[in-house]
Amino acid sequence: MHKTRKIVILVTALFFLALFGFRLFDMFKDSTLSIYNVHWKIRIIRENFIDFYGAIIPTVFSLFILFYMVYFRKFPFRNYVSHFLLSIAFGFMTSRASPNAVVTFYKLFALLVSSLVVFITFYDGGLLKFLKSRDFHRLDFTKRNYFNALLIAYSYASLSILIVDLAYLPFAITFYIGAMGLTDGIILSGLITPLCVTFATLFVLFLHEMRA
Predict the structure, then answer these.
(1) Domain count, the chain
(2) Is pTM, for the whole model, over 0.85?
(3) Are 39 and 181 spatial neighbours (Cβ–Cβ below 8 Å)?
(4) Which of 41-50, 151-160, 195-204 has the highest mean pLDDT?
(5) Are strands 175-177 and 48-51 parallel, antiparallel or unpaired?
(6) How far is CA 208 from CA 7, 127, 134, 141, 201, in A?
(7) Distance between CA 26 and CA 137 in Å, rounded?
């Protein structure tokens, strides 16, 4: 009974923590990003454009993270790429094309990516090996792995939504990637990943403790 009560309290606390965190992010977006939002339209081809702040900056930062993870932190490049394909699939699942742009439900997308990344960074061998063994005892909850999860989740989120936008480019006469600048789905999905990674980590840690 005592253990059940502790589990209920923990689940409830995680739920309200997530809601509070998402609310704070919405306030930050509405009170800061929307007010100081800027655009810099750069032509790609014909009537197709890309925004410097809404697309190029998060893409460059994500590629730098990839280089840093592979070269300095020795994260396997093959492991990064193989799971990145699943992240792109999440991007298509949580996006829809409108007449003028691609709309992404970036919060849901960031949660899916963050849940994926937790098993990439905390479990030796990645998601597929975890699904085969389902051995929660091999999860390694360290500061280094948590930091890796934050970096990889940001790069996955930003690059995946960029690829989703580029996939729709051939089907549009006029297209503006990152059109909303600092409030675009590419940059927002990356900015919210620290919250999503933290929530996913706490949830997986909760499952780990239940099975201990």
Answers:
(1) 1
(2) yes
(3) yes
(4) 151-160
(5) parallel
(6) 12, 16, 11, 10, 10
(7) 36
